[in-house]
Amino acid sequence: MKRIFAMMMVLVLMLVTAAFAEADSDLAYVQANGKLVVGITDFEPMDYKDENGEWIGFDADLAKAFAASLGVEVEFVEIDWDNKIMELDNKSIDVVWNGMTLTEDVQAAMECSNAYANNAQVVIVKADVADQYQTVESVAELTFAVENGSAGEEVIDGLGFANKTEVATQADALMEVAAGTSDAAVIDSLMAAAMVGEGTGYPDLTYTVGLNSEEYGAGFRKGSDLAAALNDFMAAAYADGSMIQIAETYGIQAALIAQ
């Protein structure tokens, strides 16, 4: 009798342990909800809306494919970039996936995926004055528009550039320069390639100085098992060519990092 009781207690303990493990699993949480909630901003070519109002872009398309691999739907939520960690922690979103630079602060606060694309922060100015701003020293006294809480803001703060205007998005930073309310903006090089210059919405703007080099990744709640699941998914998607095909759709294949 004692042996049977002991075996029953072991079984109960195993079930309780499994239940706690399930409760701690972000993967199980997302699958139980039936959706992966992705925190983004409007950031071409990573996440932006097409003419039908549907979110597309390299990150958006990859997020859709990842959600499908988990057997769930995807939901995109526009967030205030400066509040991304809070949004994760209170479960308003499940992942930040929006051309996010893997800074030390980000990696300390989130469970991050492997890097999947190379990037840099670049200076945007009006094309007719670009020849005056070809070095870091030459742009130091300009007034900059930067996305609040972004890698661009971190870079200019690190360089000691004191004249800045914080805006909600990188697209807003471009609008500041186009309107002449700021001399320059600092944005991601991948966005710059898609958004400024001939044939874009900002033909009179151009990018000049590269201020750094960096890598993109996605960020989950600290300790989340979804990061490992995404790494496995990206490795398979890179190997079968589907990840490369998505990158080619948005012209960023040269920036893609092998998985």
Care to describe what's here?
The protein is α/β, with parallel strands linked by helices and 259 residues long. The protein has helices spanning 2-23, 26-33, 58-70, 84-89, 104-109, 136-139, 151-159, 170-179, 189-195, 226-239, 242-249; strands at residues 35-40, 48-49, 55-56, 73-78, 95-101, 111-112, 117-119, 121-126, 144-147, 164-167, 184-188, 205-210, 214-220. Strands 1, 4, 5, 6, 7 and 13 form a six-stranded mixed beta sheet that branches. A five-stranded mixed beta sheet has the order 10-9-11-8-12, sandwiched between helices. The chain is globular. The protein starts with a helix and ends in a 10-residue tail after the last helix.
- Regions with pLDDT < 50 over 5+ consecutive residues? 5-22
Question: How many structural domains in the coordinates?
Answer: 2
- Which structural category do the helix and sheet elements fall into? alpha/beta
Given this structure, which CATH class of the largest domain is correct?
Alpha Beta
With helices defined by DSSP (H or I, 4 residues minimum), what is the helix count?
Answer: 11
How confident overall, as mean pLDDT? Answer: 91
**CATH homologous superfamily label of the largest domain:** Periplasmic binding protein-like II
**What is the terminal-to-terminal distance?**
55 Å
Shape: globular
Strand content: 15-25%
Helices and strands, in order, run as HHEEEHEHEHEEEHEHEHEHEEHH
- CATH architectural category of the largest domain: 3-Layer(aba) Sandwich
Q: Strand tally, please?
A: 13
Write the CATH fold name of the largest domain.
D-Maltodextrin-Binding Protein, domain 2
The largest sheet, given as strand count, sense and whether it forms a barrel, is: 6 strands, mixed
Radius of gyration: 22 Å
Helix content: 40-55%
